[in-house]
């Protein structure tokens, strides 16, 4: 469990801390005060599997270490949004969908979404994020995912 937690939670924390000075500088150098991805943002790749309010997919994926690490990443995202807002940095968690990757197929079923479709959806969502979205958990279509 500690290896999964290190990868999915500690890694994003350390990466965001390392880049925070550059994110602050980018935010200060951008016109306007509104938060956006074109200004400065931390987008954490989460999963429906990390939702405590809606633990869907348990029948397909009973990987407790993964689910716990993504729930912790969601809390990290919320904390980052509260701590970095004053510096002009937007923070959000994003679920890419059930995607046709090695991990997505590991449950023995074929996921419905291609990598290209997921990436296109996430890029569209990222381009539309604004101040109201900081601290949220969204999917590849921009729908709110319950914490």
Could you write a compact summary of the structure shown?
With 147 residues, the protein is mainly alpha-helical. It has helices spanning 2-29, 64-84, 102-105, 115-128, and strands at 41-45, 90-95, 136-139. 46% of the residues lie in helices and 10% in strands.
Could you please describe the fold and organization of this structure?
- The chain has helices at 2-29, 64-84, 102-105, 115-128; strands spanning 41-45, 90-95, 136-139.
- It is mainly alpha-helical.
- It is globular and about 50 Å long.
- The mean pLDDT is 90.
How are the secondary structure elements laid out?
Layout: H1 2-29, E1 41-45, H2 64-84, E2 90-95, H3 102-105, H4 115-128, E3 136-139
Parallel strand pairs: 1-2, 2-3
Catalogue the unreliable spans: none
What average pLDDT do the residues reach? 90
Tell me the overall shape.
Answer: globular
Spell the H/E element sequence: HEHEHHE
Total strand count, please? 3
Share in β-strands = 5-15%
Cα Rg:
15 Å
> Total helix count?
4
Structural class by SSE content = mainly alpha
Features:
globular, 4 helices, mainly alpha, 147 residues, single chain
